[in-house]
Amino acid sequence: MRGIIPLVLFGLLVLGMAFGLTRDPSVIPSEMVDRPMPAFTLPSLYEDTPDITEAVFDGEISLLNVFGSWCSACVTEHPKLVEIGESTDIQLVGIDWRDTREAGQAWLRRYDNPYDAVIFDEASVLAIDLGVTGAPETFLVDTQGRIRFKHVGVITDESWAEEFLPRIAQIKAEGA
Amino acid sequence: MKYLIITILTFFAATFAFAQSLDAKMEVRAQEIGAQLRCVVCQNQSIEESDASLAEDMRRLVRARLEAGDSNADVIDFMQERYGDYVLLKPPVQGNTFVLWFTPFALVLLGLLWFAFRRQKAIANAPLSEEERAKLDAILKGDER
Predict the structure, then answer these.
(1) What is the pTM of this model?
(2) Contacts of B60 in chain A (CB under 8 A)
(3) How large is the ipTM?
């Protein structure tokens, strides 16, 4: 009977490690899901277009994508965004985060610009308001301007099909 | 000696330049708050210690909010609302952190209980009754086989 105690303790240790060591600590649970977009007024990446506010999300299903010309994973993700921009009626809003105008504009010239609007957030004003921890990060915003989902990291074909599309269908069903 | 003086003066110059940028009292508060907030990029550093650019922006935001008249608690609430409990370096005592906070105390208590229980048993085992002693004597003499 006594011999079982170390075995049970060992079992508990294994269980604890199985849970504790297999979780990715860089993925922080988002506080922002199911909350309205924070209010903001920020310049557009392009000087000749007016400032952008949270009103940009009114009446449209949008993807709000955090990127930067310094972000190498964003290069990987970008073709998927271009494809989404071409093949769906979803509004794409970019946040060019902690970048310079020249670098951001050049990056979008080089890799194509799928965004309907690009917010220029040099000093993390909107990024901190959204609880952003890194790039790329993508928020799904519904027609009421509420954040419905947050995806950390690159959008892949799988994550698009499994995480975004069902939620987009749900938002469309609510609106109909 | 000359270099020593120059070095010391440089240090002072740097501190003064820093202190001048903000009311000294507010700077102390900002550092106090910053030390309690986790840098979400390099996760085991506070935003005061971290060199990550996001931490730099967070430091600036903490100072801006203090200048706007927020209390220390307001600033921490602001960050917690956006980044969750995660951003607090010291986890708050609440439902989902009971295990974290109270397991050590529970283990100490369990240890003490076990210790007390074990000693009692040891004492209970020690003395032999009259009957047992007689039996033992008999065995030792070899009467019982």
Answers:
(1) 0.74
(2) 123
(3) 0.76
